[in-house]
From TrEMBL:
The keyword Signal does not apply. Belongs to the short-chain dehydrogenases/reductases (SDR) family. InterPro entries: NAD(P)-bd_dom_sf, SDR_fam. Signal peptide: none annotated. The keyword Transmembrane helix does not apply. This is Enoyl-[acyl-carrier protein] reductase III. It comes from Geomicrobium halophilum.
Amino acid sequence: MKNKKVALVTGSSRGIGKETAIRLAKEGYHVVIHYARSKKGAEEAAREVEEHGVETFIVKGNLANKEKIEEMFSKIEERFGRLDVFVNNAASGVLKPAMELEENHWDWTMNINAKALLLCVQKALPLMERNGDGRIVSLSSLGSIRVLDNYSAVGVSKAALESLTRYLAVELADKNIRVNAVSGGVVDTDALKHFPNRESILAESREKTPAGRLVERSDLTDAVMFLLSDQAEMIRGQTLVVDGGLSLLT
């Protein structure tokens, strides 16, 4: 068991995280399924992952809580003794205009979407160093570089995530650990249901995306898998934008 590579995907009980976990299983990785609330979803994801002949390990953790992060990585170390891939997919945030944000809205969003990356990488590093290799990819969004309605806190947190990605990539390069991010255009996922203007977002994106369609979950998963692959060896600290050309328009 310990000779096989291990991947942790946060927020992998559903959506892009779940699809990424399944793709990693197809590549032969044992997969750590992380969830915050939906144990049922995590168990279903684990069953689908295990269909590909690998082991799964389910962990629950509030990524806004440092102690819970430490507990999660202690469990991974105890179970597998190593970690080769970390996909930082879990995200949350309060969707309000900036002038309506409370301090706790800001703190929650920044803690989950930005600070958690730092704390998780700090705990992942010793497990990756044991094997002399590590690959880290985070999921971001166009709100990091574009102003979107009701997205101020999340957009700033994703901008921080992308900046941290650059710093980590340089700092960890001599340890043979690659750090990158994938920024997606509008994807019709469960998360989008929380947007008060969901329908207008989808309609506008369909109309304006040069590629002629919305970005799908598989498009983002493809990008994540590429950045984790050997073919991306010399890509460091970059945010790969997968939006069908939407962000190129003013």
